[in-house]
Amino acid sequence: MGFYLGILGAGESGIGTALLAKANGYEVFVSDKGSIKEKYKQVLIQHEIEFEEGKHSEEKILNANLIMKSPGIPDKADLVKQIRAKGIPVISEIEFASRFTNAILVGITGSNGKTTTASLTHHLLKQELEVGLAGNIGESFAKQILDKDYPNYVLEISSFQLDDIESFKPHIAVLLNITPDHLDRYDYQFENYIASKFRIAENQTAEDYLIYDADDEVITTWLEAHPVQSTLIPFSLKKTIENGAFLDNNNTIIITVDNNQITMSAANLALEGKHNIKNAMAASTVAHLLKIRKQTIRESLENFQGVEHRLENVLKINKVQYINDSKATNVNATYYALDSMDGPTVWIVGGQDKGNNYQELFQFVNEKVKAIICLGVDNQKLMENFGNMVDTIVETQFMSEAVKIAYKIAESGDSVLLSPACASFDLFENYEDRGRQFKDAVRNL
Predict the structure, then answer these.
(1) Is CB count within 10 Å lower at the N or C end of the chain?
(2) What residue range is the signal peptide (predicted)?
């Protein structure tokens, strides 16, 4: 019997890991408590990989030498506790996959902006380098290593994926911001979540880089108390930075790395909003470190189209703009969305609350929001927080109905914004499903 890998969860990361492990001579067993999607099942059958669905066979799993668990499975799960009690190492897909590649890795994490920054970074690099995009986005990292093994990868990485690393080390790590999110998975201790995000740098050396937001007090305070080995490259909208990126008084982005400077006008960025200037700074700094030509960086920033379900303009109907920001699964993401609204806004909000504190949204709701449509199974908290702030607040559990109500309320010059500030699992499969249903409902008006 060879080395035996147990895989919990047969989603994108689980299937990719199974294929990579099998190709490298591991004995593999895939177990999913739910049902496995047909396309994934076919892949497992075709590659003769043993699997089960609808249950976890404990004795089989507890016989493994190593366990790869899907980021969606919490440590609190009984089976995970048993595995750890037995001393079987538990790792994430990015940890497993990184052991089979010598590629230069760019790891991007943060509470918000990961997908946009990872996609933008990939867009900047792919003009001149062979580079894959993986992690929390697209095809799994493991499967890409098996199929193509690019010399470079941009990885969007969540805290859950970082929780289960051992030796994973990006050459360039990007830490965009840290705001309270997923606290239900961290015993409601913000410190645990911060520590988790900083694991992206824990194996880095002085030859590696950590690019981070110097305006984020959570990050700067933590760094002072817990120094890292990495070479630090901060970015800021507020202060002048000698080695890193900042915005000067003329709205020019200035990036300096090892005395090599690149400048560009923030006004020319395809993506709007202050938070996107930061995302652009982070992505451009990565490109600058990897020796992408300055002209290429500038051009790529000007033509990048953004990410689906992130402040995505859907349609304008009767001079009302419908905006899909379904990817806003926490309060901070919605903060950016409301901040970027110009006129009166009909706001569709709600879903599975992860311990949200809505206070930081109050100023925008008072200023800009004319009506609120709560779209969730349990909207009590939203009603309590915002009930007195707007004239109209309604509840629904159907996207089509939410959009019809918005259509009736909105007048010429208004915007209808889907920016839920919550997870989607109470009524939808995931935030993509929620965003697609919104777009379909708008198109069917």
Answers:
(1) N
(2) none
Please report which helix (H) or strand (E) contains residue 133, including its range. strand 131-135
Q: Give alpha helix (H) positions in 266-305.
A: 274-289, 294-303
Query: Is 136 annotated to bind ligand?
Result: no
Which domains, and CATH codes, for the chain?
Answer: 4-91 (3.40.50.720), 95-303 (3.40.1190.10), 312-443 (3.90.190.20)
Q: How confident is the model at residue 57 (pLDDT cuts 50, 70, 90)?
A: very high
Rounded to an integer, what distance in angstroms lies between the CA atom of residue 349 and that of residue 395?
A: 10
pTM of the model: 0.83
Structure tokens at 280: 């652009």
Q: Is 354 annotated as a binding residue?
A: no
Spatial neighbors of 116 by CB under 8 A, at least 6 apart, are 271, 276, 279, 306, 307, 310
pLDDT tens digits for range 252-305: 999 999 889 999 999 999 888 888 999 999 999 999 999 999 999 999 999 998
Give whole-number Cα distances, 179 to 210, 236, 348, in Å. Answer: 18, 17, 22
DSSP code for 199: G
Binding site annotation covers 116?
A: yes
Whole-number Å distance between alpha carbons of 190 and 169: 24
Residue 111 labelled as part of a binding site: yes
Q: 357-404: per-residue pLDDT in tens?
A: 999 999 999 999 999 999 999 999 999 999 999 999 999 999 999 999
Please tell me the distance from the alpha carbon of residue 438 to that of residue 326, in angstroms, as a whole number.
9
Instruction: Tell the residue number behind the tokens 């901060």, with chain if given.
Output: 234
